[in-house]
Amino acid sequence: MSLGVSRSRMHWVIRLVWFLTVGWWLGTFWLVVAILCSASIVFLPIGVVMAQQTWAITTLKTSPNVVIKEVRVEADG
Predict the structure, then answer these.
(1) Widest CA span in the chain
(2) Percent of the chain with pLDDT over 70
(3) How far apart are alpha carbons 14 and 9 in whole angstroms?
(4) What is residue 20's three-state secondary structure?
(5) Alpha-carbon distance 52 to 29, whole Å?
């Protein structure tokens, strides 16, 4: 049995086009909504999660402390 681990990365050109066309205004809107949600005790958890995801929404890249792995297991024989 072999274990193959691959990392999927989005090309930097796609991320740059996303940021220049959509990311900067969508990220700003997302952060404003997160702040508004955080103003309420009921929606505070949602606002915190949204604020943490602002980087990923704006740049289509996860934060440096998040690792995304795709694990594939192949059976021999």
Answers:
(1) 58
(2) 66
(3) 11
(4) helix
(5) 14
C-alpha R_g of the chain: 17
- DSSP secondary structure letter of residue 74: E
Round to whole Å and give the CA distance between 46 and 16: 28
Indicate if the pLDDT at residue 68 is higher than 90. Answer: no
The pLDDT confidence band at residue 11, using thresholds 50, 70 and 90, is: confident
DSSP state of 22: I
| pLDDT tens by residue, 29-53 | 999 999 999 999 999 999 999 999 9
Can you read off the two tokens belonging to residue 40?
Answer: 């309420």
Q: Which amino acid is at 15?
A: R
